[in-house]
Amino acid sequence: MPKFYLTLTVNGEQRELLIDPRRTLLDVLRNDLDLRGAHRGCDSGDCGACTVLLEGQPITSCMILAADCDGLSVTTVEGVTPADGLHPVQRALVEKGGIQCGFCTPGMVMAAIALLDDNPRPTQAEVKEGLAGNLCRCTGYKKIVEAVLSVEEGK
Amino acid sequence: MIGQRIPKLDAPDKATGRTVYGHDVKLPGMLHGRILYSRHPHARILKVDVSRALKLPGVKAIVTAADNPRVGAGAERVPARFGYGKDNTPLKGDVVRSLRDEVAAVAAVDADIAEEALGLIEVEYDPLPALFDAEAALKEGAPLIHSEHGSNLFSKYRYSHGDLDTGEHESDVILEADYELPYVAHAAMETSVVVASFDHRGHLTLYSTTQIPFLLQRDLSEALGLEGRDIRIIQTAIGGAFGRGLDIYPYEPIAALLARKAGKPVRISFSRPEEFLAAPVRQPAKVHVRAGAKRNGLVTFRDVYALLDIGAYVSWGSVTPLVMMQTTASLYRVPHVRFSADCVYTNNPITGAVRGYGNPQSTFFVETMMDRLAVALNLDPIEFRIRNANIPNEETPQGLKITSCGLKECLEAVAARADVGSRQMVASRSKWQMANHQPSAISHQRLKRGIGFASTLNVGGGARIYRSDGCGATVKVDDFGHVSLITGSTEIGQGSETVLAQIVADVLGVKVEDINVLNSDTDVKPWDVGVHASRTTFIAGNAAHIAALEARRQLFETAAEMLKASPDELIARDGKIMAANQPAVELGKVARARHFREGGQVIIGEGWYDPPTQLVDKDTYKGNISATYGFGSQMAEVEVDTETGKVRVLRLVCANDVGRAINPMAVEGQIEGGAQMGLGYALTEEVIVKEGRVLNPDFLDYRLFTTADMPELESIIVETDDPQGPFGAKGVGEMGGTPTAAAIANAIYDAVGVRLTTVPMTPERVLKALDESQRNL
Question: How much is the average pLDDT of B287-308?
Answer without folding.
Answer: 98
